[in-house]
Amino acid sequence: MSRRASISRMGLSAASVEATDDWDLRVHVTLPHLQSFRAAARAISFLPHQPARSALQGRHRARIRGRGLDFEELRNYLPGDDVRAIDWKVTARSGAPYVRVYNEERDRPTLIVVDQRMSMFFGTVQNTKSVTAAETAAIVAHRVIDQGDRLGGIVYGDQAVEELRPGRGATALTRFLSVLTQANQRLHADAAKVKPIAMNAVLRAVSRLATRDHLVIVISDFDAADAETERHMGAIAQHNDVVLALVTDPTAESLPEQGAVTGTDGQQQARLDMAAEGVRAGVLSVAADRTDLVTGWQKKMKLSVLPLTTAQDTLPQIVALMGGARR
């Protein structure tokens, strides 16, 4: 891996980038770095009761439904019982009122889906999109385990998909963060050009793993998302709580009006003249259409969208979006 090539490709200054064991934490993550979010992740929650300012709360945003309920017993109605708990069929057969008693499940599985394709290996201000996605996944993973829920995930790059079935405790957390670190560190400027794994194929795997009552969190720039992606997302959201973390770079909203911008996929480069008629507008239009598509799912499918940018530190963004206190 060429460290200098990666920094140059991102447009970042080598002097301003924090480094750990020769890894630039704005270009690649390390396992200790992802593990370091444990305490700070307690500022957020994925439990049903959300702060008023949380992006998981609101008129057009999904409400986290909770872990679900397990049936415990049928018993006689007692004064003070909720009448909505009365089992009317049993009451009619027995001639006396009966209620159904439920206990809240102790935990529920969470599936974190993290995009680490080459389309994510890009950033112009602070982080690459792949780093912002990895840090987001780590923060969520720490909180899920801290809440006592089970943690699983799908981490995918251009050529490999790692499926991790939900598990409990430190073992599941370390396994997930290790797989995520390895996928992130495989991204580099000299990577061979290959046809990337389609997000739709990954979503089919999500449907197989998250049959119902999962919390599914998808972290990506949603490159090449299309109508089929929307159908898969809608099917998953029917039986699960779904949160989308949309990772963007400032170039998705602004480009210079003059001069040239060089784009690269890590192997080939294209020089785009921003003064040429239609070029700048076309580039911005592609980014805007993708953002509009994903944010539109929020209202259409009753799921939640967390917009994240590579231009800011990841943790404060997530805390603010989920209505937590700034630290």
**Global shape:** elongated
Structural class comes to alpha/beta
Number of domains: 2
Helix content: 25-40%
User: What is the rounded Rg?
Assistant: 22 Å
Give the DSSP E fraction (strand runs of 2 or more residues): 15-25%
Report the total helices.
9
Second rung of CATH, namely the architecture of the largest domain: 3-Layer(aba) Sandwich
Which parts are unreliable, with pLDDT below 50 for 5 consecutive residues or more?
Answer: 1-11, 13-17, 58-62, 262-270, 279-284
Could you explain the architecture of this structure?
Helices cover 34% and strands 21% of the residues. It has helices at 3-10, 31-35, 88-94, 129-146, 169-185, 199-209, 227-239, 279-301, 314-321, and strands at 19-20, 23-24, 69-76, 98-104, 109-115, 150-156, 161-167, 215-220, 241-248, 260-264, 269-273, 304-309. The chain is built from 9 helices and 12 strands. With 327 residues, the protein is an alpha/beta fold. The protein folds into 2 domains: 3-64 and 107-321, 3-Layer(aba) Sandwich (Rossmann fold), CATH 3.40.50.410; 69-104, no CATH class.
